[in-house]
Specification:
By secondary structure, this protein is α+β, with helices and mostly antiparallel strands. The chain folds into 2 domains: 124 residues, Ribosomal protein L10, N-terminal RNA-binding domain (Alpha-Beta Plaits, 2-Layer Sandwich); 44 residues. It is 56% helix and 16% strand. The protein has a 5-stranded antiparallel beta sheet with strand order 2-3-1-4-5. Helix 1 crosses helix 3. Pfam families: Ribosomal_L10. This is Large ribosomal subunit protein uL10. One of its GO terms (biological process) is translation.
């Protein structure tokens, strides 16, 4: 039977899943409360939400948000990591968190309508940040212009030297 509290949770997370750029499902078995608190703080600082929901309620919220691809992965102990800005930020935080030893086990990642398994999700953490990618793109776009300007300047310098040489010969 649906209680008002459960209905409110489903409604709240339906909206959150609609707004999310990425949703990570992870198994948090074996992590103590203090460690989870530290992890939550790292996520919060990065604008990412970490939440443990009952699979049944999460499934309803995800389906209401139009995401049915995660249904088969909602088994066992599941935590939800919801990224609202940069979809790769949670992957970087999880990678850093798991450096000493793997404590948070990724199940899958839902990103831009696609489901990525654990191996593919770990590769996301190695992607450069948005700012780095933009600067690389800007550099790639700027490079031909710089080369063109250098070539034109070199040609002008040659012309000036040639005219100077002609001038010296005429004197």
């Amino acid at each position: 039977m649906a209680t008002p509290q459960k209905i409110e949770i489903v409604d709240t997370y339906t909206e959150k899943f609609k707004e999310a750029k990425s949703v990570y499902l992870a198994d948090y078995t074996g992590i103590d409360v203090q460690t989870v608190t530290e992890l939550r703080q790292k996520f919060r600082e990065a604008g990412v939400e970490y939440k443990v929901l009952k699979n049944r309620l999460a499934k309803r919220a995800l389906n209401n948000a139009g995401v049915s691809a995660l249904d088969e992965h909602l088994k066992g102990v599941t935590s939800f990591i919801i990224g609202y800005d940069d979809p790769v930020t949670p992957a970087r935080i999880i990678k850093e968190f798991n450096k000493p030893k793997e404590r948070l086990k990724l199940k899958v990642v839902y990103l831009e309508g696609k489901v990525f398994d654990e191996k593919e999700a770990k590769k996301l953490a190695d992607l450069p940040t948005r700012e780095v990618l933009l600067s690389m793109l800007l550099g790639a776009l700027q490079s031909p212009m710089t080369k063109l300007a250098g070539t034109l300047q070199a040609s002008m310098q040659k012309l000036v030297r040639t005219l100077d040489a002609v001038k010296e010969n005429k004197k």
